Amino acid sequence: MPHSPISSATCATRFVLVGTSHPGNVGAAARAMKVMGFADLVLVQPRFANVLSMEETVAMASGAADVLTRARIVDSVPEALEGISHVCATAMTPRDFGPPTRAPRPHFPELVAAGHSVAFVFGSERYGLSNDDVYRAHTCLSIPTAPGYGSLNLAQAVQVVAYEWRQALGSFDVEERTKASQWADAVAVQGALKHWEEVLVQVGFLDPAAPKKLMPRLQQLLNRQTLTTEEIHILRGIARAVQRR
Question: Where in this chain does the record put each tRNA/rRNA methyltransferase SpoU type domain (predicted)?
Fold first, then answer.
């Protein structure tokens, strides 16, 4: 099983969605949070009062129903930020006045080192965050995007921020799916080469009287690939099929 980093900051991380219009985005945001190990979701005046239980929301959450169950709906951004010591607002472009604009990757390690409880605040799909909500923030997060087009779907933005924050806190281990026993040993590779040598002679591709360096080159080709036992079986199966012809 992957290792789960243990950090006090993980329990002090909140995602706040302000004025969300589409139920699917709420569900997708919950899913984005859960896969990165976060569960504290707060909605501020969503379009639908019952959004957390709507069919589209639950469907898009896809296994993150527990995040929806624990989520809260509040009337104001200040209420959503209770208990938070550092607020990160998200905006597509920097503003003339307000908190400093930072990219997530260089900024997040600083927050972890300071031990802040952090809230990431996302605006509505159509209008983003109001100036007043941005002014409440300590930092304005700007996700680096291609010049000329910086439009991210709400749930996509939540996923990017959740991923970068998880990396700063300590990422999950990647589960190794290939076991050492699956790698082909040298004897198996040599057996496949010998089999192919026989076939190449039979089809006239290899002249045993003048083999040149064909087989050593094939040896080097196979060595570069670090073959598995299954791949050796496939190569020998092809050789047998050619011999039957």
Answer: 14-163
Q: What's the chain's length in residues?
A: 245
Q: How many C-beta atoms lie closer than 10 Å to residue 55's C-beta?
A: 9
Evaluate whether the domain defined by 8-169 bears CATH number 3.40.1280.10: yes
- Residue type at position 43: L
Tell me the average confidence (pLDDT) per consecutive run of 10 residues in the chain, 245 residues long. Answer: 43 91 96 96 96 95 94 96 94 71 94 94 90 92 87 92 95 67 85 91 88 88 86 92 87
What CA–CA distance (Å, rounded) separates 130 from 175?
Answer: 42
Close Cβ partners of 216 (under 8 Å, ≥ 6 residues apart): none
CB count in 10 Å sphere of residue 205 = 10
Alpha helix ranges (H) inside the chain: 8-11, 23-35, 55-61, 65-70, 77-80, 104-114, 131-135, 154-169, 186-202, 214-225, 229-244
Threshold 0.90, pTM exceeds: no
DSSP secondary structure letter of residue 226: -
Cα–Cα distance measured from residue 207 to residue 187, given in angstroms and rounded to the nearest whole number: 24
